[in-house]
Amino acid sequence: MGRNAMHTPEQVFKVADDLAALGKEVTPNVLHAALGGGSMTTIYKHLAAWKEQRKLVAAPVPVAMPEVVLSSFNQVWQVAAQEAAKEVAAVRETAEVSVKEAERNLSDAISTIARLENEADIESTNLDLLNRELSDTKRAANASATEAAKREAALAATVDQMGNQLADQHAALQRSHEEHQAFRQDKADELARLAESFTARLAEQGELLRLANDEINNLREKLAGSAAQLDEARQGERRVNTDLVKYQAASQEADKQLAETRRLLDEANASVLDVTSRSANLDGQCEALRAQVQTQENLIRGLAQVDPPEKKTTAKSKTTPSAAESGKGEA
Fold first, then answer.
1. Which residues contact 194 (CB under 8 A, 6 or more apart)?
2. Helix orientation angle between 40-55 and 9-21, rounded to the nearest 10 degrees
3. What one-character-per-residue DSSP string does 81-96 give?
4. Are 47 and 54 in contact (CB under 8 A)?
5. Closest listed residue to residue 190, CA positions, set 269, 82, 76
6. Which domains does the chain have, with CATH numbers?
7. Are 275 and 187 in contact (CB under 8 A)?
8. Burial of 319 (0-12, 13-18, 19+ CB in 10 A)
9. Cα–Cα distance, 100 to 316 (Å, whole number)
10. In angstroms, what CA-CA distances link 32 with 7, 24, 115, 153?
11. 57's torsion region: left (phi>0), alpha (psi -120 to 50) or beta?
12. 120 contact partners, CB below 8 Å, separation of at least 6
């Protein structure tokens, strides 16, 4: 709201002249209405100047009258003037009292109007300031709303992206877990086969040693039989020596097979160690994946808590794995 309009003297004089020409009474309120508003104190000041100007307008030029008419007129005029002087004196006295009272009332009214106009100007200035502050606040609020909408859209996109990454990591973790289980099963089967083969070989070598010992015992019994059978025993001893050579060769072959078996057992143990090491590495990778998944889930929960209430349910449904998927991941 702007301040009251300040009219120039020319504008006030012109409107006052127009009103006087129409035969209307020229008062401050009538002027205020004819001017379409404005400062009442300014109108009062210019109206007073207009009235003073009107008093200075030249009086009509008198016309000379004949002596007889003038003498009669003077006599009548004197009588009328005496009567009129009495009435004028009474009216003037009354008028002076009324004028003084009106002037006091006018002065008070002008002071009150000036005070009210000043207060109105102050209120207008304050209202303009409040309107500007309200406009600035609205602009800031609109900017904040736009920024919040952008941040909300970016946050929703981030949540969706992290939800997709979490799903991919859940799938990768499940595949790694299944591959780890298959690898452990294969190595366990292989270790069982190697242990079974080693046990069979040990049993076979033990049977060969038992048979050789039985044969040696039989030969020794034949040597201890009697002196009559010495030659036969010697022959038998030779046969035994021959058989012993064969047995030694067989024993050497058995030692070779035993060494080969031990080598296979060492390879099996090394394979078992390698399987154990790879299993430990896979377990560590699984634990690292679980920790990463847990960290991203916590981050998504923290981001979801910033969203408006109507979007928290949607964010949770996108980021929180189902009970079945959680069970698979923990397995």
1. 264, 265, 268, 271
2. 60
3. HHHHHHHHHHHHHHHH
4. no
5. 269
6. 1-55+94-129 (no CATH), 147-330 (1.10.287)
7. yes
8. buried
9. 87
10. 10, 14, 18, 59
11. beta
12. 4
Number of residues that this document lists for the chain:
331
Rounded distance between C-alpha atoms, residue 261 and residue 200, angstroms: 10
Higher per-residue pLDDT: 310 or 82: 82
pLDDT at residue 331 is higher than 50:
no
Structure tokens at 171: 């799938």
Report the distance separating Cα 31 and Cα 7, nearest Å: 11
* Three-state SS at 27: coil
- Look at residue 250 and tell me whether its pLDDT is greater than 60: yes
Q: Which two tokens stand for residue 279?
A: 């299993």
Strands (E), the chain: none
Q: Which residues contact 9 (CB under 8 A, 6 or more apart)?
A: 46, 49, 50
Cβ neighbours around 283 below 10 Å, total:
11
Asked if the model's pLDDT at residue 191 lies above 80, the reply is no
Q: How far apart are CA 109 and CA 41, in angstroms?
A: 9
Cβ distance 3 to 118 under 8 Å?
Answer: no
Shortest CA distance to 19 belongs to which of 34, 8, 37?
Answer: 34
Of 311 and 142, the one with more pLDDT = 142
Q: Which two structure tokens, joined as six digits, stand for 110?
A: 């002008």
> Residue 60 — φ and ψ, nearest 5°?
-60, 150
- Which residue in 67, 69, 50, 61 sits closest to 10, CA to CA? 50
* Low-confidence winner among 158-162, 220-224, 275-279 (lowest mean pLDDT): 220-224
Amino acid 66: pLDDT: 66
Question: pLDDT at residue 114 above 80?
Answer: no
**Distance between CA atoms of residues 316 and 271, nearest Å:** 46
Q: How far does CA 326 lie from the centroid of its chain?
A: 29
Rounded CA-CA distance 99/107 in Å is: 12
